[in-house]
C-alpha cells in the first residue's frame, strides 16, 4: 500500500488545520475523546484481533492482552489530561521588591507543538501502532497525529484508523485529528514537511537513526523521539543463583521465548557465575514445551535477519549452545522458530562484543560466565552503551534492609541507572507496566532522546513546548495560568516578597 503525493498533501493540510482547534479543546473534551477511542477499540476487539493474527502470526492471547493494554493507555492519558500536571503551570507574581530588581508578572505553561508524525512498530500492532501509546500521548497533548502504518500489518492499520475516524467524526472534531499514511518514502516526505512539528518512532536502530538525522537536518530541525535497540542486561548474583537457580533458569527462558523474542525488553545478555544446576535446569526447560513450541516471526525480513544473526553468533569460536533452537521457513517466507540460548566466557565476549553484545531480535540470548567475585559494575560500562532496562537478581540476604546495601551491588545499580532507563530487581524486563511512573527509554541506542519515555504519563510531555507570558492581561492567558484556575490544575506560585528568604531553609 502506498499514499500518493497528492493524498499526502491533503493529509498534511488537514492536520495543520486541525492543530489550532485541538490546541484549545477543553481538557475534559480531549479526555472524552481518548476514553471513547478506548471504548471503541474494546467493542471491536474480536474483529481486529482476527485481522492482526492473520498479518502478524502473533497469538490471539497475546493480541487480546495488547488490545486491553492499548485501551488502558488511552484511558490513562484521559485522566492525565484532566489532572493538568503535564501543563507544569508556574506563576511568579509581580514583585517590586524582588532582590534582583523589580520582577514582572511571569506565567509559564506548556502548549501543544502541532501535528506529529508517528511511525508504527512491527511487533506491537496495537500498543505501538495506530492507537498505541505514542498516538495516545500525541492526542492527549492536544496535537493532530499522522500515523505512518507499518508494512507488516497494513489491513489492521486501516481498520483501526477507520474506527478512530468514526469516533472523531461522531464527536464533531476535525478530520485531521488522526490520519493514516502508507509507504516508506511517504513517511520520509511527511517527516520533511514543515507542517510536521515532531516525530515518534519504534523500530530498528538503523531505521530510527536515518529518520532522526532527517528530522535534525531540516531547515528548522524538529524533535524526533525514537525507541530503537536494546540488549537489556541481566545480572544474577551468586547468592541468588544458589538459592533459586533452577527457577531463574525457567523464568529466563520464558522471558526470552515470549512473543518469539520480538520484544524490545527481551533479556539479551545474562551475566552470572553459572553452575551446573542452572545450566541443567535451563537445558531441561529448553526440552520442555516452553522451549520446543515453535512460534512465527513477524515477517520475512525479520526472519532473514534473525537467522543470519544466529548463524553469525554460532560461528564464533567459544560459543557453546545450551538451548539449541530450531527454525523453518514457510512458503510465504515467514520463519517459525524455537529459542536458542548460548553461553560464552567473559574473554570470548570481550573478543567478539560486536557480534555477541548487540541486540538480536528474536528468541535468542547469551549467557556470559563471570568468575565468582568479579566486580560487576565495570561490565556495564564495558559492554552496555545504552539500554531500556537493566536487571539485578539478588539473594534474600542481599535484599534485606537490615543487612545494608553491599557496596559492590550499590555500584552495580548505580552503573545500570546510568546506562538504562528502568532498573528492576528479581524480575524480568519483558512486560512493561502501563502506569504513570513508568520509564520506557534510555541512552543511545535505546532511544534518540534519553530524557523521554514512550510509556507512562510523562510520555505526553514530548509533544508540548513551554511558553512564558510576561505582564499579560488575563484575557490573553491560557486557562491553566489564570488566578481563578478554572481547570483546577496544579499551579506552582512564587509570591511577592519570597525572594528575600531564598536559601535560608538550607541553614
Explain how this protein is built.
It comes from Leucobacter alluvii. This is Aldehyde dehydrogenase (NADP(+)). InterPro entries: Ald_DH/histidinol_DH (IPR016161), Ald_DH_C (IPR016163), Ald_DH_N (IPR016162), Aldehyde_DH_dom (IPR015590), Aldehyde_DH_Superfamily (IPR050740), ALDH_KGSADH (IPR044151). Keywords: Oxidoreductase. Pfam families: Aldedh. The chain is globular and about 75 Å long. It is of the alpha/beta class and 507 residues long. It has a 7-stranded mixed β-sheet with strand order 11-14-15-9-8-16-17. The model has no long low-confidence stretch (mean pLDDT 96). It is 40% helix and 17% strand. Helix 3 runs antiparallel to helix 6. The chain folds into 2 domains: 211 residues, Aldehyde Dehydrogenase, Chain A, domain 1 (3-Layer(aba) Sandwich), CATH 3.40.605.10; 192 residues, Aldehyde Dehydrogenase, Chain A, domain 2 (3-Layer(aba) Sandwich). It contains 17 helices and 19 strands.
Q: What is the name of the CATH superfamily of the largest domain?
A: Aldehyde Dehydrogenase, Chain A, domain 1
Helix count, DSSP H or I runs of 4 or more residues: 17
Q: What is the CATH C level class of the largest domain, in words? A: Alpha Beta
Q: In this structure, how is the largest beta sheet organized?
A: 7 strands, mixed
The order of strands across the largest sheet is 11-14-15-9-8-16-17
CATH topology of the largest domain: Aldehyde Dehydrogenase, Chain A, domain 1
Q: Could you report the average pLDDT, rounded to the nearest whole number?
A: 96
User: Overall 3D geometry?
Assistant: globular
Strand-pairing-aware structural class: alpha/beta
InterPro entries: Ald_DH/histidinol_DH, Ald_DH_C, Ald_DH_N, Aldehyde_DH_dom, Aldehyde_DH_Superfamily, ALDH_KGSADH
Organism: Leucobacter alluvii
Domain Aldehyde dehydrogenase: 4-372
Pfam families: Aldedh
Amino acid at each position: 500500500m502506498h499514499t500518493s503525493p497528492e493524498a499526502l498533501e491533503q493529509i498534511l493540510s488537514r492536520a495543520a488545520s486541525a492543530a489550532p482547534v485541538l490546541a484549545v479543546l477543553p481538557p475534559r473534551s480531549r479526555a472524552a475523546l481518548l476514553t471513547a477511542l478506548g471504548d471503541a477499540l474494546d467493542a471491536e476487539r474480536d474483529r481486529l484481533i482476527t485481522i492482526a493474527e492473520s498479518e502478524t502470526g502473533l497469538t490471539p492471547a497475546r493480541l487480546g492482552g495488547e488490545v486491553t493494554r492499548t485501551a488502558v493507555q488511552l484511558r490513562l492519558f484521559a485522566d492525565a489530561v484532566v489532572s493538568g500536571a503535564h501543563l507544569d503551570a508556574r506563576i511568579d507574581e509581580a514583585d517590586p521588591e524582588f532582590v534582583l530588581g523589580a520582577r514582572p508578572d511571569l506565567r509559564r505553561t506548556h502548549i501543544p507543538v502541532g501535528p506529529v508524525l508517528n511511525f508504527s512498530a512491527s511487533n506491537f500492532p496495537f500498543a505501538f501502532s495506530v492507537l498505541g501509546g505514542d498516538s495516545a500521548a500525541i492526542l492527549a497533548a492536544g496535537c493532530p497525529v499522522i500515523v505512518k502504518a507499518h508494512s507488516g500489518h497494513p489491513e489492521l492499520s486501516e481498520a483501526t484508523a477507520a474506527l478512530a475516524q468514526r469516533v472523531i467524526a461522531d464527536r464533531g472534531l476535525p478530520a485531521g485529528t488522526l490520519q493514516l499514511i502508507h509507504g516508506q518514502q511517504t513517511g520520509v516526505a511527511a517527516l520533511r514537511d514543515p507542517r510536521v512539528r515532531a516525530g515518534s518512532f519504534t523500530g530498528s536502530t538503523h531505521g530510527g537513526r536515518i529518520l532522526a538525522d532527517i528530522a535534525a537536518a531540516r531547515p528548522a530541525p524538529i524533535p524526533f523521539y525514537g525507541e530503537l535497540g536494546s540488549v537489556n542486561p541481566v545480572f544474577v548474583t551468586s547468592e541468588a543463583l544458589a538459592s533459586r537457580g533452577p527457577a531463574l533458569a525457567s523464568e529466563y527462558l520464558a522471558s526470552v521465548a515470549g512473543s518469539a523474542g520480538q520484544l524490545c525488553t527481551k533479556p539479551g545478555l545474562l551475566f552470572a557465575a553459572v553452575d551446573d544446576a542452572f545450566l541443567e535446569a535451563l537445558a531441561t526447560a529448553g526440552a520442555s514445551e516452553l522451549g520446543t513450541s515453535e512460534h512465527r516471526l513477524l515477517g520475512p525480513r525479520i526472519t532473514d535477519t534473525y537467522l543470519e544473526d544466529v548463524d553469525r553468533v554460532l560461528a564464533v569460536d567459544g560459543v557453546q549452545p545450551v538451548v539449541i533452537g530450531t527454525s523453518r521457513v514457510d512458503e510465504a517466507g515467514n520463519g517459525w522458530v524455537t529459542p536458542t540460548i548460548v553461553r560464552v566466557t567473559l574473554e570470548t565476549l570481550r573478543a567478539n562484543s560486536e557480534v555477541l553484545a548487540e541486540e538480536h531480535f528474536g528468541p535468542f540470548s547469551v549467557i556470559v560466565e563471570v568468575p565468582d567475585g568479579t566486580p560487576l559494575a565495570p561490565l556495564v560500562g564495558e559492554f552496555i552503551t545504552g539500554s531500556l532496562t537493566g536487571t539485578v537478581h539478588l539473594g534474600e540476604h542481599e535484599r534485606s534492609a537490615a543487612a545494608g546495601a553491599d557496596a559492590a551491588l550499590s555500584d552495580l545499580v548505580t552503573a545500570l541507572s546510568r546506562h538504562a532507563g528502568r532498573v528492576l530487581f528479581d524480575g524480568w524486563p519483558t512486560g512493561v507496566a502501563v502506569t504513570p511512573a513508568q520509564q520506557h527509554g534510555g541512552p543511545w541506542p535505546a532511544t534518540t532522546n534519553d530524557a523521554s519515555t514512550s510509556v507512562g504519563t510523562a510520555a505526553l510531555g514530548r509533544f508540548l513546548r513551554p511558553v512564558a507570558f510576561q505582564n499579560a492581561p488575563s484575557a490573553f492567558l491560557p486557562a491553566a495560568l489564570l488566578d481563578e484556575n478554572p481547570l483546577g490544575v496544579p499551579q506552582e506560585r512564587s509570591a511577592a516578597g519570597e525572594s528575600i528568604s531564598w536559601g535560608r531553609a538550607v541553614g
